[in-house]
Amino acid sequence: MDTIDAFRELGRIDLGENSLDGVLARVAELARDAVPGAAEVSVTLVRDGGPRTVASTGPAASAIDEWQYSYHRGPCLDAAADRRTVCVDEVEGERRWPGWAEHAGSVGVRSALTVGLPIRQAVVGALNVYATTSRAFDDEAVELARAFTGYAAIALANAELYDSTAALVRQMQAAMASRAVIEQAKGIVMGQRRCGPDEAFAVLTKASQDANRKLRDVAADLVRRAHRRS
Fold this sequence. Notes:
Blueprint: H1 3-12, H2 20-34, E1 40-47, E2 50-56, H3 59-71, H4 75-82, E3 85-88, H5 100-106, E4 111-116, E5 124-131, H6 139-193, H7 197-211, H8 215-229
Antiparallel strand pairs: 1-2, 1-5, 3-4, 4-5
């Protein structure tokens, strides 16, 4: 696949109809096909639970990633943490991450290129490109990898925005439901005591404090009892 076709395929990905993992898997596949020298590609995301590979085009990429997660060192973790590009021209003899070169070489990888996601959010990650030849990645390959990483970052940012918006909507719905049941309970107290809304709210608040329960739970119990009696 040439570069133009790859970016056309990127443009056809519907961010609204695919899961984040599905989008990132397609990004990894297109990067493998378009970046000169790439043999396998993976995508690392680092969340609260630690790093994990959310997309991989082959077992060698997954194996190298998992080694880094287990030993807490390696090019993809450095690139993700610093949001920078890390290139290993010659795996053999690489000493920045003790043990990594031997493991990468054991699965046939001879050079590596990893690009940190260029976003400033709680979630960080990287696009990892592995080659079976030494010095596989020239300047063109590096720029292409960065372009694919930028698209992955857009997909991730959109997914995070959607999740945060959905969470906010759920919180607002819960708050509205709580307010509605509290208003119902106030009405019941006003009817029973023939008092105003402020006094009714004070009665509910005192009952909440005395029982060491949330106000909405006390209100919900009162409404349920009133419904059963009626």
